[in-house]
Amino acid sequence: MNVLWYSSYPSFREQGIPEINDFNVLMKFQRQGVGSRLMDRAEEVILERTDVAGIGVGVFSDYGKAQVLYAHRGYIPDGHGVHKHDHYIQPGEETIMDDDVVLYLTKKLKATQ
Fold first, then answer.
1. In Å, how far from its chain's centre is CA 29?
2. What's the rounded Cα separation, in Å, for the pair 3 and 85?
3. What is the pLDDT of residues 47-67, one digit of tens each?
4. Whether the predicted pLDDT of 97 surpasses 70
5. Do 69 and 35 contact (CB within 8 A), yes or no?
């Protein structure tokens, strides 16, 4: 997992939103709280500089566990739709649905008390 302070995703870059990137938990460690602890730490680091975090997630069922984790943590779609390579997919546009089709999410972070 990395925190990209300057995301390649245009909306995050334009708004100065850091991106949690390359977030993976090995299968044998899933469902043990490892992912949540990693996300906690990434959010703590981001909160030292800004109060919004971003993350991208694939749209296939292979990403289902991540989609659920992010939703439970309060991440919501950024409202721009799905993105692939260098553009947003438009209605009626044909594309190959692969791992490069991503929905980007954001979360307003709150300082712990």
1. 20
2. 19
3. 999 999 999 999 998 899 889
4. yes
5. yes
State the DSSP string of 25-74: --GGGTTTTHHHHHHHHHHHHHHTT-SEEEEEEESSGGGHHHHHHHHHTT
Which residues neighbour 75 within 8 Å (Cβ) at sequence distance 6 or greater?
53, 55, 105, 106, 107
Residue 85 in tokens = 């390579």
Amino acid at 77: P
Instruction: Give the percent of the chain with pLDDT over 90.
Output: 73
- pTM score, two decimals? 0.91
Which residue, chain included where needed, has tokens 């977030």? 23
Burial of 25 (0-12, 13-18, 19+ CB in 10 A): buried
Instruction: State the number of CA atoms in the 13 A half-sphere of 108 facing the CB.
Output: 0
Q: Where on the phi/psi map is residue 86: left (φ > 0), alpha (ψ -120 to 50), or beta?
A: alpha
- β-strands 101-108, 2-4: how paired? unpaired
